[in-house]
Structure formats: structure tokens, C-alpha cells
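re: that complex we talked abt at group meeting.

here r the seqs, copy pasted straight from the sheet so there may be weird spacing, ignore it
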Amino acid sequence: MPVLSEMRTRRIGRWTSIIGVALAAIALLGSAAAARRPLSRSAPELLQETGLYADFGRHQVDPRHLEFAPQYPLWSDGAAKKRWISLPARAAIDGSNPDVWAFPAGTRFWKEFSFGGRRIETRFMERQEDGTWLYAAYEWNEDQSEARLVSERGKPKAFDLGGGRSHFIPSVNDCKSCHQGHPAQVLGFGALQLSSARDPNAIHGEPMPAPGVDLQYLVDNKLLKRLPRAVLENPPVIHAATPAERTALGYLHGNCGHCHNDAGSLRNLGFSLRHVQGPARRDAERTVATAVGQPVKGRFPGQAPDAKLRVEPGQPERSVLLQRMGSRNPLVQMPPVGTVMIDDEAIRLVTQWIRDLEAPVRSTEATGKTAQTKGEDP
Amino acid sequence: MKASRILLIAAAVAMSVPAIALAQSKTSAKSAQVKRGEYMTMVSGCHDCHTPLKMGANGPEPDMSRMLSGHPQDMQLPPAPGPTGPWNAHVAATLTAWAGPWGVSYTANLTPDPETGVLRDFTEQQFIQTMRTGKHQGQGRQILPPMPWPMIGKMTDQDLKAIFAYLRQIPPVKNKVPDPIIATQ
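got the structure back, here u go
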């Protein structure tokens, strides 16, 4: 790649060719692995070829990669997860739009899924030169000695979850249905998910792995640039009336907000479960504004006639949002992919949140403005 | 009529000609797209499944009064026979209700009926995404067989946009297609 860009620039002129040579030199100074492996459009056959490991035989991750844990993780039927990011040498993330960070070409992410202490699959994303992201999944063999690229169509029955259910390794279309549902595409490595003010009650929350990658760490280490000062000074927190509401809305952000938001292809639903930064961050959360007391737009198979609102304050059993979260009928369930088991802990959390929304105060107030008058962030 | 008045009218007419021509070329570009969509819809077999068949003098024929409105809501069907042996799929005489190992699926109402048309909340981009991914509204549940989205999804953006433009302006038919039934293994 560096050689190619150097050749191209030579034709353009002497000055640019000097820059090209300099760039190539910088690239060569970077990690040896990165220099060996050109940015390819198709995923390599074996996981070790993506550069995750320093020593694959001993499952030793390259110490240059940073492990991280988003504060509001995605529910994946109880899988244990580990995640890593690798930025190209000397490159930084551009955080000037705090809702859509721009990652340099060559950025790589991995996410490992284990059930019962055994690795089942490792997912991989890589930013290409043209700005697109590559999506791939690798399936581990029984004795954990190999992880091979899964077909674009995914892989059923990758792990038996009991009760006739099994883990499905998502197809590339499945990856995209979640990751491309918001312009950010990267879903767990962003301002709220890595906020220095972590929600202590977040469900399925994982302990922060060393070295403690959060906004402060990224800025201090010059890995994140141009993040608005305000975001660093007031670390992002879900705006909520109570700690329990904060946790419930955080869960919906992490599990639903990548499809249900104001910026992606489903925006025409007018239904956003995603927390946003930016100038309006002191207003009510969009979840409160677009779900609480708001009529459903569609109708799911078997929807009861008295279920009319996305969230009906005080009435969890009539709230369509909760009904769809609590279903694993493929025609009804939310999210529509990535899970075959109901998240009972989340059902309890969201049920309690809906119960605690006092009907007369909030449902009449379609904009949800009352949410912020009740109190400050916990 | 005074000469000056005639002149004025003539001038107005002359000035409005380019505007009319522009509007016409716009509508004709639009109608060229719709025409292309009508053609694509015809040759790629959407009618086969989405326009119910009725019995005519010469045998079954598409019921154009229900053009592209999917499985008729008023049609009473006995439960589908289970998928057994090599003949594991069944289809109703209308070609709008299908049973197989996946369960029972009913073809969707593609007309722009604001209440019952499947595309009522779709943007053009979501229509394209639906055909490319086989997911309802581009990101939702898996679309059931025999909807041939893997074939339709290979069309160019231009052809899919043309089909969408055509479907948005055909006569709306109010027809609430039943919910599919998922097979339970």
C-alpha cells in the first residue's frame, strides 16, 4: 500500500512525491505486522491473519492492541465477550462529531464470544481506504487451535444453548443491519459507551479491563483528537430522573439505539432509543420523547388491540416496546437478530422503569420534557 | 382586442413555453422511470405471486382488479398440509399463499394503500435494502420464502428505484394480508 501510494504520487509532482515517500517511511516505521499486511477488501481465511495475536498458539493477544469494555453492552444470550481495538501507528480518532467518531483507515476491531469458558466466534471489523468497514466472523474449532472465516451467510448451530436453541453466527447482512443502522457503524467505542462517568448499575456490565480505556485515557494518550472540550469536562451521562431510569435508557441505547435513532435508515419511524451528544444534550433523552406516550407506527403479528403505545406509563404489559423485547417469535422479537433468548434482567429493568413513569405527568406531555424537571443526573 | 394586449399575451405565452417544456421533461423523466418500473415488475414476475389468480374462461388469469395487492384477506383456507416427503411445499390456487418447511407465508400488498400496503412506511432506500438483504424494511425480520429477494436484490439501484416509483403510483387496494405462520420444529 505505501509503495503504491508512492508510485501514484510520483506522477503528480515532485513535492507530493516527497510527501508520499515520507508517508511511506512513517508507515514502515509503524508496526511490522501492519506493514506486512496490506489493507485488503476481503477478509483473510484465518483469524491469526487479521493480526489479533502476538502468539496464536498460546492465544496471546498482541500487547499493542487495547482491550476495552463499553458500559452498556449488547445482550447476546449470555455470551462472555472481550473486545480490542488497534489503531494504525501514529494515527488518531477524530472525535469532532461526538456522535460519529471518524476512525483512520486501517483501524481494526475484534470482539470475541465465549460460552461456558470456550471461545465460539471472534468478530472482526476493519476500516478500509475508501472509508467503508469490512465485516467478518471467525468460528473457533473444538480444541481452540483454529478460528476460520465463516461464510457470508453466517453459521447456524454454533453452540447449543439448550431447550432446542442454539447460537447463530450472524451473516454479513446481519452485521450490517445493526452496525450500518447508524452512521457511526462502530457501536461500542464512542462517547457514551466509554464515558469516564460509568453507570455503576448497568446490567451485564463488565469490569473495565486494563489499562482502563475511557475518554480521558484516549485523550491523554493522543488516540482521540478534536473531541469537544465540553464532552471531556462533563463526561456523557444519560439524562434521567432516577438512577434506575438512567440504567434502563442506557440499556436501550446499547441494545436498540443502533437501529432506532434519528440519523440512520430507520429514522422515518420517528423512534429513537439512542443517547445523543451535542448542543441539545441537556434536553430530555430522545427515548423519552419518542417512546413514552407515543403511538406505535406499525403493528406486529398478534399485537393486542389495547397495545397502542410504544411505552404506556405505568402499564408495562400494554407497552409494545416491552412486548417485543419479551418475545422470541422471529416475526415479533426485538432486536430482530443476534439473540434467541429473552434477556430476563433487562425485562425486569424496563418493566420497573415503565411502572415508575407516572401516567398523568408524562403521557400528556408528548415531548417528554418533564423527564428533566424531576432532578439532575445521579 | 388591442394590439398591445395581444402582444402581452404572446409574450406571456412565449415566456411560459420553456417553463412548460421543463415541467414536461421533468414529468416525462418521471414517467420514463415509472414505465421502466412497470416493465421490470412485469418481466421479473412480481405479478405471479403478488396479483392473485382467478378462474377465467380460459383458465386461471391474474385478477387485475386486485393488481399487486397480495393474498386476498377474505379468502378462507383450511390449514396447510404439513411438509412431507420430497413434495414439501404447497401453494393455494391464487398463488398468493405458500406453505413449506418455513411455515405459511402470504404475499404482501404492494399497492400504496395507506393502511394495508406493506410499503406504506418505506423509503426508497429501505425498499432497496429490503431486496438486497431479505430483511423486512431493510433491517427487521427475515423475509420468508418463496419471495425471491436473492434474485431481485441483484438488480441495479436504478431498476429497483424504478420498481419502487411504479409501485408508489399504482391504484391502492385495501387488503390486509394475514400474518405469516412460523413453523415450530
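couple things i noticed - The beta strands of chain B are 53-56, 59-62, 90-91, 97-100, 103-106, 181-182. Chain B has one domain: 35-182.
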